[in-house]
Amino acid sequence: MPLWNCRDGYGSVTKTLHWVVVALFAAQYASALTMTRMGDGVRAAGLSRDDLYNWHKTLGLVALAVAIGRLAARHVGELPEWAPSLSPAERHFVHRAEQVLYAAMLIMPVSGFVYVMAGDYGVAFAGVVELANPIGRSETLAAVARVVHIGAAIVLAAALAGHVGLVLRHTLVRRDGLVWRMLPARR
Ligand code: HEM
Ligand code: HEM
Description:
Elements: H1 12-35, H2 49-74, H3 88-118, E1 124-125, E2 129-130, H4 139-173
Antiparallel strand pairs: 1-2
Helix pairs in contact: 1-2, 2-3, 3-4
This protein binds protoporphyrin IX containing FE (2 copies).
C-alpha cells in the first residue's frame, strides 16, 4: 500500500489518520455526554467529572493536531478516483458530507478551546501542563463559543450518520466493498 493518496486509492497516511480521528471523536462524544450529565462526587469508569473534562479538552486538542495533519496529507499525491458504484447524486452527497466533516474537525476543537479560555476555565493538558490563555476573559465570547461547540456537535453527528450510513449501505446491502477503500488491504 502506498504512503500517500494516488489515483488508485487512499494511502496509508490518510487511512491511519482517518481511523485515529474516528477513535478520538468517539472518545469525545462519550466523554462529553457523560461529563455534562454527572452529579457531584460521581465517578464513571474510575474517573471524576473533573478528570473527564480534562481528558475531553486534552484529546480534543490532540484531535485538532491530527485534523490539521490530515488536511495537509490530502494535498500530497492525487485524490483517488470515485468509487465506480457511487451514483452522481451519491457523489454529490459524499462531497458535501466530507466538506462538513472537515469543517467540523476544525470548528469543534477551536470552539471548545475558545469557550474554556474565554470562560476562564483553562486547560490542564493531560492533567500536567497548564496552557496559557491567549484569549483573555470574555463572558460574551464564551457564550457564543459554547453555542457554536454544541451546535457544531449536532451538525457533525448528522453528517456522520449520513457518511457512515452510505458506507454501510454500500458495503452490507449492495456488497460493493466500499469500506475497503479506507481499510489497510484494498480489495
Ligand atoms: C475535537 C473534537 C471535540 C468534540 C467532537 C467535542 C464534542 C463535544 C460535545 C458533543 C459536547 C456537548 C455535550 C452536551 O452538552 O451534551 C461538548 C461539550 C464540551 N466541550 Fe467539547 N468536543 C471537542 C473538543 C473540545 C475541546 C478541544 C475543548 C476544550 C479545550 C472542549 C470543551 C468542552 C466543554 C468545556 C464542554 C461542556 C460545555 C457545557 O458546559 O455544556 N471540547 N463537546
Ligand atoms: C469521526 C468519524 C469520521 C470522520 C470525521 C470521517 C471522515 C471522512 C472523510 C473526510 C473522508 C474523505 C477522505 C479524506 O479526504 O480523507 C472519509 C472517507 C471514508 N470514510 Fe470516513 N469518517 C468517519 C467515520 C467513518 C466510519 C465509522 C466509517 C466506516 C463505516 C468510515 C468509512 C469511510 C470510507 C470507506 C471512506 C472512503 C469513501 C470513498 O472514498 O469512497 N468513516 N471519511
